[in-house]
Structure formats: structure tokens, C-alpha cells
TrEMBL record:
It comes from the Eukaryota. This is Very-long-chain (3R)-3-hydroxyacyl-CoA dehydratase. It is an enzyme of class 4 (lyase). It catalyses: a very-long-chain (3R)-3-hydroxyacyl-CoA = a very-long-chain (2E)-enoyl-CoA + H2O; (3R)-hydroxyhexadecanoyl-CoA = (2E)-hexadecenoyl-CoA + H2O. The lineage of its organism: Eukaryota, Metazoa, Chordata, Craniata, Vertebrata. It is a multi-pass membrane protein. Belongs to the very long-chain fatty acids dehydratase HACD family. Catalyzes the third of the four reactions of the long-chain fatty acids elongation cycle. This endoplasmic reticulum-bound enzymatic process, allows the addition of two carbons to the chain of long- and very long-chain fatty acids/VLCFAs per cycle. This enzyme catalyzes the dehydration of the 3-hydroxyacyl-CoA intermediate into trans-2,3-enoyl-CoA, within each cycle of fatty acid elongation. Thereby, it participates to the production of VLCFAs of different chain lengths that are involved in multiple biological processes as precursors of membrane lipids and lipid mediators. The chain crosses the membrane at residues 12-32, 52-74, 189-209.
């Protein structure tokens, strides 16, 4: 009897950790989305320009915290494939911290507002679904939404990310940010690195989209069976 009790206690601790994590992420992304929406309806296009100044710090916190998901998968707290999640997270980290945060001129672009709207809309739904799933609550509409919303929005996210990189190139070229000289007359010209990453971004999108579609198919196939059993 000790083994099942130990297993239940371990499972309870894992679920409690995941629930708290999902709750924090849900609150953070909900605050960002609500703040952006309220500011847009209150100030119109003027609010778009200073989006990063208004919510950038909270966005950085949420995206930095999302790296914990890799640890969750690695230690077995969360069941998912590590590589697809790694691609999704690093994609956002690079765009947010390397492309947007490092260039003040890029922070004022409309594409930042669009990108943040897409990111937070997806994450609000995803973390709501995950948070409820951890405590054994499931709704058919929410399950379908969480497994379907990404299909049109994720490609738009990648296009917005690519456009943000494209718009940042002149500023990286003029400022020389992250470009450096190496020994033996070698150098790293960062705009070239971004152009290479731009191509890799679409390759990664294909891999991630295939994984998410396979996951959607499995979840929506199993969900009606679980619903009947309940």
C-alpha cells in the first residue's frame, strides 16, 4: 500500500506545480492581452507605438518563465516532446530579446503590437486548457479551441516574426549590435546571421506545425472517448 500512496503523493505534487505554473502564465498573458486591448480602444493607433514600453517587462517575464517548460518535459513532470517545444520557445526568445529588445527603433513598429496580440491570444487559450486539464476538468469547446486556434494564428505569428526581423536589419547594420571581430581577420556580421535564421524560421515552422497537427489529431480522437466514459 505504501507504493501506491507514494505514487499518488508524487503525482499530486507534480500536478500542483504545473497548476501554479499554468496559473501564473495565464494571469500574465491575460493581463498583457487585456492591457493592450484596453489601450488600443482608449488611445487608438497611438497606443500601438508604445506597446513595448507599456507591457514589455511583463512579456519578458512570461517568456523567460516559459523556459521552465523544457525542464518540466526533461524531468517528466509534463508529457510532451522536447524538440518541438524547444523550437517554439527559442523562436520567441530570439525574436523578443535579440531582435526587439535590443533595438529601440523596432520596439515602436506596428509589427510588435501584432506579434504580441497573436502570442498572448494563443497562450491565454493554451494555458487555460492546460490548467484545467491538470485538475481533471475538460470542456469540449475549450479542447477544440486550444487544438484548433493555433492553425491559422501560428503561421501568422511566424510571418510577423519574419517581418520583425526584416525591419530590424537596417538598424543592426547601422548600429553594429552583436557584430564582432574575431582573431585571424574573421568577423561575425550579425545581419547575415539574422538572414540565415530567417530561412531556418520557416523550416522550423513546418516541423512545429506538423507536430502540433499530429498532437491535435490524437487529442481530438481521444477526447470523445473520455467524454463518453465520464
Amino acid at each position: 500500500m505504501a507504493l501506491p500512496q507514494t505514487w499518488l503523493q508524487s503525482r499530486y505534487r507534480k500536478n500542483a506545480c504545473l497548476f501554479v505554473y499554468y496559473l501564473i502564465q495565464f494571469c500574465g498573458h491575460s493581463w498583457i492581452f487585456t492591457n493592450m486591448t484596453a489601450r488600443f480602444f482608449s488611445f487608438g493607433k497611438d497606443s500601438v507605438v508604445d506597446t513595448f514600453y507599456a507591457i514589455g517587462l511583463v512579456m519578458q517575464f512570461c517568456q523567460s518563465m516559459s523556459l521552465l517548460e523544457l525542464l518540466h518535459i526533461y524531468v517528466g513532470i509534463e508529457s510532451d516532446r522536447l524538440l518541438p517545444r524547444f523550437l517554439q520557445l527559442t523562436e520567441r526568445i530570439i525574436i523578443l530579446f535579440v531582435v526587439i529588445t535590443s533595438q529601440e527603433e523596432v520596439q515602436e513598429k506596428y509589427v510588435v503590437w501584432v506579434l504580441f496580440i497573436f502570442w498572448n491570444l494563443l497562450d491565454m487559450v493554451r494555458y487555460t486548457y492546460s490548467m484545467l486539464s491538470v485538475i481533471g476538468i475538460s470542456y469540449a469547446n475549450l479542447t477544440w479551441l486550444s487544438q484548433t486556434l493555433w492553425m491559422p494564428i501560428y503561421p501568422l505569428c511566424v510571418l510577423a516574426e519574419a517581418f520583425a526581423i526584416y525591419q530590424s536589419l537596417p538598424y543592426f547594420e547601422s548600429s553594429g549590435t552583436y557584430s564582432t571581430k574575431l582573431p585571424f581577420d574573421l568577423s561575425i556580421y550579425f545581419p547575415y546571421v539574422l538572414k540565415i535564421y530567417l530561412m531556418m524560421l520557416f523550416i522550423g515552422m513546418y516541423f512545429t506545425y506538423s507536430h502540433l497537427y499530429s498532437e491535435r489529431r490524437d487529442v481530438l480522437r481521444v477526447f470523445p472517448i473520455q467524454k463518453k466514459k465520464m
